[in-house]
Design a protein that fits this description.
single chain; alpha/beta; Transcription Regulator spoIIAA; two-stranded antiparallel ribbon; 44% helix
Length: 264
């Protein structure tokens, strides 16, 4: 049963399962539009009081929450919902709240991080799925699930194939409780790999002494400390630093620190 059909958000209610199904039809153009739709969501949730929530996210988001709206969402939407108590926790440790993020999990790292960090639900533990079928199958399962006492399995990564676009496809299996940390680890590795690929020529343009100076700068050494450690004059350190900044095309230390990956 359709209970709300707004400019961007569609909400349906499955009475037989006491389940609210929410779908972003399109990305809100701005924070104001996003907030307006979420206020409607809050009214519906507090009125219906579902025991389960299924959130179908877009295949590729184009709207990203500002920090101010994240705080607003936490205080005005999430706290009233999760403190009401009608969305209960299963015996497997997860709340009856499922996200369908599709296959492009990295596109929704921000969503995963937000639900891990916001204060309204420090104990809140949703589950993430790549398809609606799998999410509904999990929500339809008996709630009184006995948690297995088997030892936690290690992360396994399996090479599957090279697709038509020449990209390697991997499958990884990890305990669901480590989902977010594992994905973030992969994200960090991918970002580091891309940074190295895009900046290797700049880094290679540095002289051996400039590379050594850069390494010490990243570690937090002052010019004076670098001078003592490298047995060079203070002015030579400054010359190296200026040359590094110019070759790497950077202006601030935060940009310099990104090159840490070249020394790991």
């Amino acid at each position: 049963m359709e209970v709300y059909n707004g400019p961007h958000l569609l909400i349906k209610y499955e009475e037989e399962n006491s389940r609210l199904v929410k779908t972003w039809k399109s990305s809100p153009p701005d924070d104001a539009s996003y907030r307006k739709e979420l206020i409607e969501l809050l009214h519906i949730v507090t009125k219906i009081k579902p025991s389960q929530v299924l959130w179908l996210l877009m295949s590729k988001p184009t709207f990203y929450l500002s920090d101010i709206t994240k705080i607003w969402l936490d205080e005005n939407i999430l706290k009233p919902i999760f403190k009401s108590g009608f969305i209960t926790k299963r015996q497997d440790g997860f709340d009856q709240f499922a996200f369908v993020v599709g296959q492009d999990v990295l596109a929704y790292i921000g969503v995963i991080d937000f639900f891990n960090e916001h204060s309204a639900s420090s104990d809140f533990k949703p589950k993430y799925f790549a398809s609606e079928t799998k999410a509904k199958s999990w929500l339809n399962a008996e709630l009184n699930i006995k948690v297995s006492n088997r030892e936690e399995e290690e992360l396994t990564i399996i090479f599957k194939e090279i697709d038509d676009k020449g990209k390697a496809v991997f499958e990884f299996k990890e305990d669901a409780s480590n989902f977010d940390s594992t994905i973030n680890s992969f994200k960090t590795i991918i970002e580091r790999s891309h940074f190295i690929k895009n900046n290797i020529e700049k880094y290679a343009s540095l002289t051996p002494r400039e590379k050594e100076t850069l390494k010490l700068i990243i570690k937090g050494y002052t010019n004076e400390q670098i001078s003592n450690k490298m047995y060079i004059s203070f002015n030579t350190v400054r010359t190296h630093r200026n040359s590094i900044w110019k070759k790497l095309e950077i202006k601030h230390f935060r940009d310099c620190s990104k090159y840490k990956c070249f020394f790991n």
